[in-house]
Amino acid sequence: MASATTVLAATAGCQTNSCTPTDPGVAQWPQTRASPYNTNAVPDQSTLTAGGDYWTSSLADDIDITGLIATNDTVVVVGRTSGENNGILTTVQLDDGSSDTTHELNRRPTGPPALAGSIAVTPVLGDYTEPSTGGLVALDTASWTTTWTHETAGRPNPPTVADDLLVATSDQGDVTALAASTGDTQWTRTFGDDHQRASIPAPPAVDDDHVYITADGSAAQGIYALDRETGETQWGIPGPNIPEPLVRTEDVVLASYDRYELAAFDAADGERRWSKAMYDGGLFAPAVGHSRVFSADEETVYAFAAFVFS
């Protein structure tokens, strides 16, 4: 039986089939997104100290945890049934670990949900006949009813929510802005061309003005800032391969190249502000907190004064 403590470890550390909570292997650990600015930091969080289990909450033996997200009083957990093309979504109370209700998803979740009020929006695969497609399912955890669904041409990334804006992306170049509460489409962009669509490898960062994405493909590769209201490209930096999520903080967008470099670009116009070389292979997405930018490659963790370079 999986405890809530095990669930948290599995979600933090295991992104490959060979990975276990006690032996994470080579999987890269995802980081808290924290806010629409995607700073990957919660500097006001009280200090975490070592201690015993506060509570445990058991899930069914055949459920593999796909992801979770926490609010002030509730943890929303999504998982999938081994060997099946379906999944579950359940809520767990933070104060005592009690599980409220478990809802069956008729499609397999691929990552953690995003929350818009009481609505949990989960990325899911298409049906078993179309495994390369997918979409989003929005479930109201107050009424346990499906509020809306959205289909994507490819496998979806976890969505990004900022106020009532939800941005959906996929590995087939789709970028769609939706109303988080209703699922109504506000605008759609597709990156690539008629011969090959580009992949959007990671969820976007969003601020008051822009949606920042990366694309990877022969017809479109680089960093793009899209108008939040219309989806029109405001600026672009063709060329760089950025597989990890962008981080939007202060007046810059931070980008971890696939190897050897962390760079900061002006959020307003895309001008390159500074960069730092790293020498030990692939980079993780940066995190920001206490006026520092933290980054890591395969061998070393780096801390930079965040805005000395500006």
Automatic annotation (TrEMBL):
The UniProt regions of compositional bias labelled Polar residues, in chain numbering, are 29-45
Q: Where is the Pyrrolo-quinoline quinone repeat domain?
A: 172-284
Is Nucleotide-binding there in the keyword field?
A: no
Sorted UniProt keywords: Plasmid
Q: Which Gene3D superfamilies match?
A: YVTN repeat-like/Quinoprotein amine dehydrogenase (2.130.10.10)
Q: Where is this region: Disordered?
A: 14-45
* Protein name per the record: WD40/PQQ-like beta propeller repeat containing protein
Lineage at the top is: Archaea, Methanobacteriati, Methanobacteriota, Stenosarchaea group, Halobacteria
